[in-house]
Each structure stands twice: as structure tokens, then as C-alpha cells.
Amino acid sequence: MEVKVLTIKEDILGINEKRAKNNYERLNEKRILTINIMSSPGAGKTSLILQTIDRLHPKLRIGVIEGDVASQVDADKVHQRKVPVVQINIPGGCHLDANMVANALNNLPLMEIDLLFIENVGNLICPADFDLGEHKRVILASTPEGDDKPYKYPTMFTEADVVLVTKIDLLPHLDFQLSRFSEGVTRLNANVKIFPLSCKTGEGMSQWFSWLLYQRRYLKTRLIRQSSQP
Amino acid sequence: MHELPITQGILSIVLQHAKSVQARRITSINVKVGEISGVVPDYVRLQFDLLSKDTIAEGANLIFLPSPTSLRCRRCGRIYTPENPDWICPECGNNKFEIMSGRECSVESMEIG
User: ipTM of the predicted structure?
Assistant: First the structure.
């Protein structure tokens, strides 16, 4: 048998990138600011989303995509607040991909959403490699997890737009050093914003709300300007 | 499992290319894996053996070509491969950098019959 070498040079996740781009264009068309929220399990992603709904919805109309290995627990909590939500379950899976989000978008009333949260599967490794078509990436790191997370899981933090240090009400009981944590994040990422906050006491939450409102306004202005150009 | 979509991606890429040149058999595949891509070659091998069963890629030898991490110092601009756990720049001792490569994952080439 004659053996031949065929050069390919093709990115393995290229198909995901392509689908992510489709999602991005679709979200832009509807002017929906989309935030991919990532963290390890239990860092407070759902609490953050619920607090944000309580504060901003329906003035800013929110929608949510929930990604979990199993259960509807998170989606039920969101649903109770009369916010459109789609639950994605991935048995044995560890992250959301662009195709799953595309399907979820088909099941959301996109005309009634200004801000879409995609709550990724709790995991500090895999979700970083799968673009979903979001506008911004937000990483949560809770103080009980320790201040060494950006040193141990660097790739997760390199492309974050915002890092939220959650559960800061627990700081008096922990050895967590905010300066060591922040140093670990900024060495990887020059443009990242770091907001320490607590969903429990409300401390620091206003920075997060202001950032979201600013991003939504900015996106809208940018898209209107683009569409008015010949 | 992070590796599953990677393995599926490899298989679908090689089968597609094999079809376009009407190859009868894929005997080996060269895959470039970045050092910090988080992909574990042994897992990919295991999954590939299962997924490629009854395809022309069955039994193909998967060869992983490690792609080293390359960083660019944000202070002095030096491009370096980190040699210490803190990824500090060997030129100026700064610890702020951009990741230039090391996260990529691609099918480079394959041998067909």
C-alpha cells in the first residue's frame, strides 16, 4: 500500500469557533449583551444572577441559560422570578459549547431580553477553551477557595473581562489575601477588572451593577452606530 | 470530559480530509497539543480507539507533538518559555505577561493509504 502524507493544519476546536461566531452575530442582531459566567462549583454564580435579577430586572430585561451536569435546581430559582430561563443538562459533561448555546437561544424569547447570562458548568478548567459567542467573560472566585486560584488555573483568568471575588463577608475568618489574589490575576491579564463583593451583605454589588449597565449601553451605542453606517 | 470534543474534532477533521482525497486508510495522525491546553493525550488515545471503530481511521497511530508555552513579557517584551513555576521573565524578573502560544490544539497532518 502506498503511504502518502497529507498536510492538514486545522484547529480542532474550529467548528466551535464558527458556531460561536454565529451566536455572536445573532446576539448582536438582537442587541442582547451576553455574559459567560464561569467559576468552580459553589463560588456563587447563581446567587450573583439572582441578586442581579432582583436589582435590575425588569428595567433591564434579563434572560438566563443554566448549564449543569444534572438537575433543574438553578433554573427553578430563576424561573420563580419570572425571568426566561433555559436549563441545559450535560450528563458527564464539564462545560458548555457554542452548539448547546445555539439550541438554547432557539428556546428563549430573544425579543424580550436585553441582558443574557450564561451560567457555565462549575469548573475552572474546560469552560475557558470553549467560546460561546458571548460579549464578556466573567469569572467568580470565592474567598473560601483560597487566593491561589489564578496561580493554579491560569488559563481560566487570561481572557476574563471581569473577576469577581465573592463572599468577602467571610474574609475575617479566612487567610485569603486580596492583594496576592489580584497580583495573580493581573500578571496574566492586563485589562481585567477585579470587583470584590458579597451577595449576602450587598457590599461591592453596586460596582458590578454599574459595570453591567455601562456595558449594555456601550453595546447598544456601538451596534446602532454600526447599523447606521452605509 | 474536556477531551471528548477534542477527540471528536480530530476524527471528524481526518475523515473529512480523507474523503476529499479518496483515501482508503488513515494510518497515522499528527496532532499538535499546546502544553497548557489542558488536553491529556492518553485520554484522547483511549477515546479515539473507541470512536474510530469501523471507520477508515480505525487503528491509526495518534502522534502528539507537544507545543511549548511561549510568553511575552509585558515590561521588556522578551519572548520566553517559562522555566520556573511562577513564569517570571528571565530578562527582567517581571511576572506580567501575555500568553503567545501553548493553548493551541490542531491536526497537523496524517498518513493515508
Answer: 0.86
